[in-house]
């Protein structure tokens, strides 16, 4: 299992008339948390592009518990529970600065060849980077 914490503060333009972070922004926040998690392991979106690999989201599910507000410190805990094969399943737990659970989400992306648009196995550079993380937890 791989876990990372991403912290940020919602900007004024991300809040709706009720003073809550607009619900659709959570998708973007989770995408950013996913990107930053992979970046910490040296896996960059630009590397996928260089290797003609796309990562389309094939599912996203979110359960809202409480609203987030402008400028409060938000933490997103991102988890990958199993070694990716063709798909990567991400789980997100979003909390505010008081450690109150705001929402939980799940997202699945698939590795796709940019030319054929067909699914492919996990790229070697991803496998070589993440595999030791999963093996170390078995020790």
Write structural notes for this entry.
The chain has a single domain, classed as Hotdog Thioesterase (Thiol Ester Dehydrase, Chain A, Roll). The protein is an alpha+beta fold. It contains 3 helices and 7 strands; from the N terminus they run βααββββββα. The model has no long low-confidence stretch (mean pLDDT 95). The chain has a 5-stranded antiparallel beta sheet with strand order 1-4-5-6-3, with helices on one face. Strands 2-7 form a two-stranded antiparallel ribbon. The chain is globular, with a radius of gyration of 16 Å. The protein starts with a strand and ends with a helix. Helix content is 27%, strand content 33%. A hairpin with a 6-residue loop joins strand 4 and strand 5.
Q: How would you summarize what this structure contains?
A:
With 139 residues, the protein is an alpha+beta fold.
